[in-house]
Write a structure and sequence with these properties.
2 strands, elongated, 3 helices, about 65% helix, two-stranded antiparallel sheet, mainly alpha, about 130 residues
């Protein structure tokens, strides 16, 4: 993963813990203004952390999706080539069609039947 530039690149968990410790240890010896300043710094650091974490998660998900899509594409190509070479009509796995010969394509016939059903008003008639 490339190194980040921008606010997330500067996040250091030690800085956040240090600010938190400083706020807790000096809460009675610092002025309210100084405590508020440290609290604001701590809040900014936490926001930086959340943004960096969200960006990293999104990058990881994108990379995982691309890798999965690539592997699925390779697998589908292999199965299609294998099915064609072996003369299979169709290769199915639990509802997923991995390969289907052009011989089993009934799309045109289904469209004719669908068009006939919808132009005759059959599609608008309630069943029962």
């Amino acid at each position: 993963m490339p190194r980040r530039s921008g606010p997330g690149a500067r996040y250091n968990p030690r800085t956040c813990h240090g600010l938190q410790d400083r706020l807790l240890n000096t809460q009675f010896s610092l002025s309210q203004e100084k405590r508020d300043d440290i609290a604001r710094q701590l809040k900014r650091k936490r926001v930086e952390y959340e943004r960096l974490n969200d960006d990293s998660n999104a990058d990881f998900q994108d990379a995982a999706s691309r890798a999965q899509a690539r592997l699925i594409g390779i697998f589908r190509d292999i199965v299609a080539r294998y099915g064609s070479e072996k003369g299979f009509t169709v290769i199915i796995e639990k509802g997923t069609v991995y390969f289907a010969s052009e011989k089993v394509d009934v799309t045109d016939e289904m469209l004719v039947l669908f068009n006939a059903a919808t132009t005759s008003g059959a599609a608008s008639k309630p069943r029962g």
